[in-house]
């Protein structure tokens, strides 16, 4: 579904992504793990059209056709079904919870569909229904994360990019979030997940990539990587 | 900051000697111009020197310290009125300004003390106004200083006893000549140069680049900003005072927002923070708008040169936002007069 | 209430309406692109002069209002797409200098075309009558200005708070990156903000002409600056704040002139900017905004 080949991205003068290649197959949950500053978020920003690569290829293929992510506008990429739930939640604090969800559905126009999708999100995260008319800034961190995911879901993603959904959240909330991710996967949404919490990510991932200094250094099935010594030492905190 | 750059080979003369030599050469050129050219051109040259001095003095705030001030015309107006009242012939004060307080009505100073007092008054005003206004950044400061122009204009228009209201003061003795303008320009350039390449200048530029970081290394950014603002105001007031003693009238609208804009254009085109850049840009724009004036008059399109200047600025912002020299100085000038590469943005 | 006081009140409210109209657009544009648009006041002038031109060719008044809204919107979009879009992302000061330059270009082009002379601007005769209200009366011009302004502001608030475009605008103003990730076309949203804000300023130009009776190419300068003051009073970036700030400023100005001795009324504009400096000193975030905005 997603094919990335030889992506080189610069931010200012810094060469952030170096020859990055990976794949995500339809219906799969892929995880991208690595230390801070390895280039994970940059990868996602490039895929959603907010950063442009200097060279390389990034294509998403859906039933709707093929879209060149290195050229298409961010708006077209969203319309094609690639939805990016950014790091740090980035919800609209001054808008109400309901308005945030409505922004998620910005590219959709059929009211009934939007209403149905909203109902689904409310079912997934009942708190969002309770707080619908409150400003999103008044929510707790965990609730804001739920809102961010709910907002992304309202765009009806075919490929969902999740950037650090567990960052700074209480363990119980993290569990809820990962349950939802598993449910989404079961529903057939293709997911590319970035996580520092490598254990949880590798547990649910079909496939995983390890990124270091802007390069993909390891790839394999999630379980497989968990047994890899290098991964165990560097990311899972297991001494050799 | 590499040490292997070939420009480090010593020049035969540098520093103060070089500065003195260049100043002397320029003075010779001014003498030649004054002796051989028409009065019109000599006056134009004097205006050009004053403009250059103004643009350089605006660099204290807008260039070195990164404070976007538009307040120059306000300080120039203060300077102009203060100096004009001080130099005005005592015997004519009674008819021109009958309401003047006793101590002003009986004084008649020569130009130098008058402009120094004018500068000092403006500096005090800058100090008072700077206290609330300098806490603001970016365009807040810009609008607040624009407001200062309006306040000063409104004072000049309404404080009849001192200013003669909207009609302004006329018949101001023509005490300024090309030498005053030239000398003042040299003083401003020298002061700006010394400050730019001193620890104070580095503190100013550090404040511009990153205020928090500047405070972390022990720079009192409030003091630095205030100094830049007050210095700029002082020089602006002196320039304003000199100019009215050249054109011999001052009204509340002599120095307007348009002037603030044109000075900003000079600084931006020269490169914010570049002294030589400001001088070159000020000279070019002064000559250009003067050259366009007969064209304007012949086709009856008043305001055309101003449109051209503004469009030129927009073009510079697109194509070369850092201006002619960035915030640095051309290498050859640095080698001559001394000065490190600090302040030259990549 | 005495007739004098009532008249001052109405006068202050209609002046405040003008400031509010200009300030709201100013604030809208600032909110979304973080740009103090110095050329915003010149839209007032453009609105006033296009009205004059339309009166000359005999366009009926209701249509004039509609056309002026459109002219303002088009002018705003033109300024945005030709000048500001290419330098978006540049440092704030660059943007501010560019808006100054645009203002100078507009003012001087207007001087070129129209000369600096004052022109008479007259509302139709029936607008000049007085409306009796209980024991007191007010000028119809002022009443119409106040009512139309309230109507326009109501429409604006509906757009901003109740429509998809408005939600997108608020979202973009708050977090540009996240808005782009939602599929919002940022260019189009910014264009819309400029269009709406500039349309309001142009309409303020019609009212300005009608209230003061004379217009000239430089008339936009003062309302532009005062709109900024109004925004600072209410908290920059907040629409409700800008509106309230406009009304407060209008009333304060009228009070200043009405209550203080005659000799001081010439200091009216000085007073406004003194007020600005005092507010910036005492409560820099504005009177109605609780969080302190980043002013760097």
- Helix share bin of chain C: over 70%
Rounded Rg of chain C: 19 Å
The largest pleated sheet of chain C is described as: 2 strands, antiparallel
Proportion of residues in helical segments of chain B: over 70%
**What is the succession of H and E elements of chain C?**
HHHHEEEHHHHEHHH
Q: What portion of the residues of chain B fall into strands of 2 or more residues? A: under 5%
Q: Helices and strands of chain B, in N-to-C order? A: HHHHHHHHEHHHHEHHHH
User: What's the multimeric state?
Assistant: heterotrimer
General shape of chain B: globular
Strand content of chain C: under 5%
| Domain tally of chain B | 1
Going by helix content, strand content and strand pairing, the class of chain C is mainly alpha
- Describe the main β-sheet of chain B briefly: 2 strands, antiparallel
Which two chains touch over the largest interface?
B-C, 44 and 46 residues
Task: Strand order, main sheet of chain C: write it out.
Answer: 1-4
The low-confidence parts of chain B are 1-8, 342-346
- Total DSSP helices of chain B: 16
Counting DSSP E segments of at least 2 residues, the number of strands of chain B comes to 2
**Whole-angstrom Rg of chain B:** 20 Å
Low-confidence stretches of chain C: 291-296
Structure description:
The complex is a heterotrimer of chains A (240), B (346) and C (296). Chain A has helices spanning 40-47, 74-79, 97-104, 111-124, 126-130, 141-153, 171-186, 198-204, 222-226, 229-234, and strands at 2-11, 14-24, 29-34, 55-62, 65-68, 82-85, 159-163, 190-195, 207-212, 215-221. Chain A has 240 residues and is α/β, with parallel strands linked by helices. Chain A has one domain: P-loop containing nucleotide triphosphate hydrolases (Rossmann fold), CATH 3.40.50. A 6-stranded mixed beta sheet of chain A has the order 6-7-8-3-9-10, sandwiched between helices. In chain A, strands 2-1-4-5 form a 4-stranded antiparallel beta sheet, covered by helices on one side. In chain A, helix 3 runs parallel beside helix 6 (141-153). The longest helix of chain A is centred in the C-terminal third of the chain and has 16 residues, at 171-186. In chain C, 72% of the residues lie in helices and 4% in strands. In chain C, the strands form 2 sheets. In chain C, strands 1-4 form a two-stranded antiparallel sheet. The chains are: A alpha/beta (240), B mainly alpha (346), C mainly alpha (296). Chain B binds chain C through residues 66, 68, 129, 132-133, 135-140, 142-144, 146-148, 150-151, 154-155, 157-158, 211, 257-258, 261, 264-265, 268, 301-304, 306-307, 309-311, 313-314, 317-318, 321, and chain C through 36, 83, 86-87, 90, 92-94, 96-98, 100-102, 104-105, 107-109, 111-112, 115-116, 221-222, 225, 228-229, 232, 263, 266-270, 272-274, 276-278, 280-281, 284, 295-296.
